[in-house]
Design a protein that fits this description.
It is a single chain. This protein has about 100 residues and is α+β, with helices and mostly antiparallel strands. It has one domain: Alpha-Beta Plaits, CATH 3.30.70.100. It is built from three helices and four strands, in the order βαββααβ. Strand 2 and strand 3 form a beta hairpin. The longest helix is centred in the first third of the chain and has 16 residues. It starts with a strand and ends in a 12-residue tail after the last strand. GO terms for molecular function: monooxygenase activity. Its EC number is 1.-.-.-. Keywords: Monooxygenase, Oxidoreductase. It comes from Novosphingobium bradum.
Amino acid sequence: MEVVVHYAMTARPDRGPELGALLLDLAGRLATMPGCQGTRTLVDQANPATFVFIEFWASAESQATAGAALGKAVFGAIMQCLDGPPQMRKLSPVPQAPDASAR
């Protein structure tokens, strides 16, 4: 089943640009992983220390496999930039009724 992983995070003071660069690097690495259907890296317009990182996966298994393959070093550098743990949510698409396209 398709899964979307949504992370919201805030950078430590003066670490926003570094965090943004690390997230873009992560996005590039994830793009090569089997099952990755894309990522989005977003920054809050009103607070440039606040970021949202969204991953789109073919399955929860492919997301877990990619995380294990990347290793802790990639995520460790990101964690060093954060002003606290990221808020993470795993989301699934809302199922559509069979006739939903007819509306």
